[in-house]
Amino acid sequence: MDDQELLREAIGFDGAAQQALLRGDMARSRTLFRAAAERYRASWEAAGPRAFGRLIGLLKSSILWGEGGHAAGYVRSQLGDACDSPPACYALALAALVQGDDEAALPAVERMREGGEPFERTADALHALAHGDRDAYSAAVETIVADFAAREDHLTGVAFADTAVMLERLAASRGMAARPASSVMPVLG
Q1: Distance of CA 69 to the CA centre of its chain
Q2: Which of 38, 136, 159, 171 is the most buried (most CB within 10 A)?
Q3: Residues 6+ positions from 69 with CB-CB distance below 8 Å
Q4: Which residues have a Cβ under 8 Å from the Cβ of 1 and sit 6 or more positions away?
C-alpha cells in the first residue's frame, strides 16, 4: 500500500472514530482512533520526509484514544528538537506538551504562528496550556470550536472539532478543561 492509500485509510478511521465518539461509544472510538494512528504512522513512514500533517494526525488520534505518550516519543524522535515549518512545529509542540516538556514546546508554538490563522488559533491554546493559563486556554479553545462549527467541510466528512477535542484531552490532564458546548464537540468524561 502506498502512502496516499494509507493516508486515506487513516482519515477514514478518524471519521468513523469521530462518529462513534459523538454517539458516546467510547470503546469503539478508541479502537478506531488507534487504527487511525497506526495508519498515520505508516503513511508518514511511506511518504516523503516533509509530510508533517501525518505526524499531527498520528498525535491527535493517539491522544484521542488515550495513548499520546508513545506517539509523542515517536514524533520527537522523527523531528529532533527543532522544527522548520509551521506543521513540523505544531507536531513538535504537541509532542512536547504531551510529554510535559513545556519549555521545549514554547519555541515550536511561536514558530507555528507563521502558518496563518488556523495555526495561530491552535498556537494560542497550546501556549496557554504550557503556561497554565486557564482563562487564555478557555478563550482559545472556544475560538477553535467556533471555527469548526462554522465550517461546511471537514477533512473526515464528520462535523467534529478534532483539534478542540484533542486539546481538551490535554487540558483535562492538566486540570484545565474548558468543556465548550457545541454540536461539533462530544461530551467528554
Answers
A1: 13
A2: 171
A3: 98, 99
A4: 9, 42, 46
Residue whose cell numbers read 468543556: 179
Give me the amino acid identity at 52. F
Series of mean pLDDT values for 10-residue runs along the chain (189 residues): 95 97 94 97 93 96 92 95 93 97 97 96 98 98 97 94 96 96 85
The cell for 33 is 482512533
C-alpha 17/C-alpha 25 separation (Å) is 9
For residues 141 and 125, the answer to whether their CB atoms sit within 8 Å is yes
CATH architecture of 3-173: Alpha Horseshoe (1.25)
Residues 6+ apart with CB under 8 A from 81: 92, 104
**Diameter of the chain measured on Cα atoms:** 45
Q: Record the cell numbers describing residue 63, joined without a space.
A: 491522544
Q: Is the dihedral of CA 99, 102, 108, 112 positive or negative?
A: positive
Cα 92 to Cα 35, 43, 58, 110: the distances in Å are 22, 18, 12, 11
CA distance 75 to 61: 13
Q: Report the pLDDT value the prediction gives residue 189, as an integer from 0 to 100.
A: 59
Domain ranges of the chain: 3-173
